[in-house]
Amino acid sequence: MIYINKNSLKKDYKRKFLEINGKELEDGTKEQQYEALGSLIRDYVAKEWLNTNNKYKETGEKQVYYFSMEFLLGRLLGSSLMNLGIRDICREALLELNIDLDELENLEQDQGLGNGGLGRLAACFLDSMASLNIPGHGCGIRYKYGFFEQKIIDGKQVELSDNWLRSGNVWEIQKRDKSEIVKFGGDVKMETIDGKLTFTQVNYESILAIPYDTPITGYENEVVNTLRLWSAEPVSNEFDFSSFSRGEFLKAIEYKNSVESISLVLYPEDSFYEGKILRLKQQYFFVSAGLQSIVRHYKKYNSNIYELDEKISIHINDTHPTLAIPELMRILLDEEKLSWEEAWRITQNTISYTNHTILAEALEKWPINMFKKILPRIYMIIHEINERHCKDLWNKYIGQWDKISRMAIIADGFVRMANLAIVGSHSVNGVAKLHTEILKKKEMSDFYYLYPNKFNNKTNGITHRRWLLKSNPDLANLLKETIGEGFIKHPMDLLNFEKYLSDNNVLGKLRNIKLNNKVKLSKEIYGSYGIKVDPNSIFDVQVKRIHAYKRQTLNCLRIMDLYNKLIENPNMDINPRTFIFAGKAAPGYILAKNTIELITSIANKINNDPIVKDKIKVIMMENYRVSLAEKIIPATDLSEQISTTTKEASGTSNMKFMMNGALTIATLDGANIEIKDEVKEENIVIFGLTANEVLDYHNNGGYSSWDIYNSDNRIKRIIDNLVDGTYSYDREKFRAIYDSLLKYNDEFFVLKDFDSYIRAQEIVNELYGNKLNWQRICGVNIAHSGIFSSDRTIKEYATGIWGSDVLYKNL
Ligand code: 26Q
């Protein structure tokens, strides 16, 4: 909370503008006006930031560090202003200067240092930790290029680099004096000093890690935590031009580039693992820099290294930062000279791990030879961890070699990161109830029976500050008018909204708010793609990464089916629908890219067909990212959460949609199950195979997509449409999708779930016909969304994993 009035803000802003640009505000470009406002806000934050850090030093309270390869923050201007409690007066002040705040906010480049769910979850968690007065900070990589920018050209995805730092970043502060050295390669020298075996890395390559800190403001509570992102540089950046022959100079430049490549670009794959050397270097780079700086800071204010685990929690976001385990061991053993037993106790107590996927193809494992060469000392430590772990297993599971080899950390020529993460941490959690059950009973069952107490569930959440207050201000205002402002600090209070759902006046307002949001999105769509959509049609939305398991194909097939039906019977009575898609495909994921082409081809056909044009439209919006999600989600009537059951660990957009008053059509997968339990069956539309049915097919076989194709005419027709020229002159264009469904027996049960999906969509159509009831359902969804605030999730992490004292101020 910043105490400032409109006039001083105006004065400060003009002064700031002049200081940066050397000219008057009126003479500046919009970009300059944005930059000056951002810098001013960061100045305002600076004092609270310092105070927060000083307070943490004084109280010596436990600090949480969230280690993640990805932080998908999106834009910061609007949310910072909101958290500081000055967005309204800032809007007024700027208006008096003839500047539109929304316009400036829209100029900000998204900070897109993440792929999707996992990266956005990290961002929501930072927001919740700061807002709940929890001393929790982020640690990651300052990629020069974030997640690629997607263009759709001739119906195909084209990737452009995301040069997000091009015009600078007003939010970050470079802290060169807090740099760390990270060591790669070389050999390990073993010698006995004073009777003790010691290990020293020699002939290594040093890389300089420079931290850039971004303030993370809490909501109106004067807390400012830190997101620290590391950038790689050569240790010495100085070239002595005169002493370099031309060849040496070029070599020096090449060297500089190879070092900087470590923090150059975010890998755009989110569910497929490839053992790339550079990715391993990225992982060690930020983990080592982060841990060194944490331990250095700790030692400055604490004399007893043995109490490190009482003062610090390190949480690893999936296995990507698992090297934190051997790196902390290295620091404690080689630098602090602790015994193995003490170092291991501290490491295990300090580290906790979240799993975000059960897709086998996403499990990280590194070839031993590559690993040893890049991280020789770290490999030795993992080897020792594995030896001790396997010895325990031998004693416990006598003769059960299969089980022991499944549980080993090093086996078959690979280092298995998930096994290391489980063994080296005190807590392993899944991200929704079903997901955690699958981890315990199936994927990680060997470990669950060995360490039952390590495993726990923490159902994901989203910050209602960004995803309701900021992205849907009209809805937030209606809630304030009805139930009061309490829900902002206590999102469970949203339940009080249920009382108002018998009031037709409130339902009418809900309807108008949604319609308004739809009108805004329609304008955006018209502006970007020249396509007119009807704001009174059902906005039926699937926005997320493009992946076979998320089944955008199922969505496409039912649109194709509906189109066939409308062509046959143009007078069919349906509520008009606008099908909206958005999402990026990993650049190397051919089938996903093919799916985008299918969507755009369907759009092309349908949007240009006069027979159906008033009934259905299909839109593929380009370059899905946080700031676009903030526009689409509040304008959505129907949220498509149609993954193959068991495959989506949780999903988080499902929560954002319900919070914004959309109806969900869903399989019983991930957090959809918990959403259903909250809103009750009559306020969500469920279809498809259950988890047990899917697991049963996996275990026992018995599914044939051919049989379905041959026995259902609708399905036969649309599958044939993929290759009969209906959607492309090039009949081979969708062959890969066709083959995945028939030749490869439809791994994700698209055809199996088709009929039940169509029937579910018919129910949606009927529900929409009764306007008041539809609004009531949307209201129930809003009222029950409080439990999916990441504030609830973070409280559970704080009390259940990091140590309840982390939260003591709020208890
Ligand atoms: C791993 C190795 C090499 C290259 C890339 C990766 C990689 C990168 C990102 C693997 C996975 C990811 C991201 C995964 C992800 O976003 N998972 C999602 O996490 C959400 C938050 O928990 C869940 O809601 C989603 O269900 C889950 O898919």
Automatic annotation (TrEMBL):
Cofactor(s), by name: pyridoxal 5'-phosphate
Domain of life per record: Bacteria
Gene Ontology molecular function, alphabetical: glycogen phosphorylase activity; pyridoxal phosphate binding
Assigned EC number: 2.4.1.1
Residues carrying N6-(pyridoxal phosphate)lysine: 656
Catalysed reactions, semicolon-separated: [(1->4)-alpha-D-glucosyl](n) + phosphate = [(1->4)-alpha-D-glucosyl](n-1) + alpha-D-glucose 1-phosphate
EC main group: transferase
This protein's GO CC annotations: cytoplasm
UniProt entry keywords in alphabetical sequence: Carbohydrate metabolism, Glycogen metabolism, Glycosyltransferase, Phosphoprotein, Pyridoxal phosphate, Transferase
Family as reported in the entry's similarity comment: Belongs to the glycogen phosphorylase family.
Protein name: Alpha-1,4 glucan phosphorylase
Organism: Clostridium sartagoforme AAU1
Source taxonomy: Bacteria, Bacillati, Bacillota, Clostridia, Eubacteriales
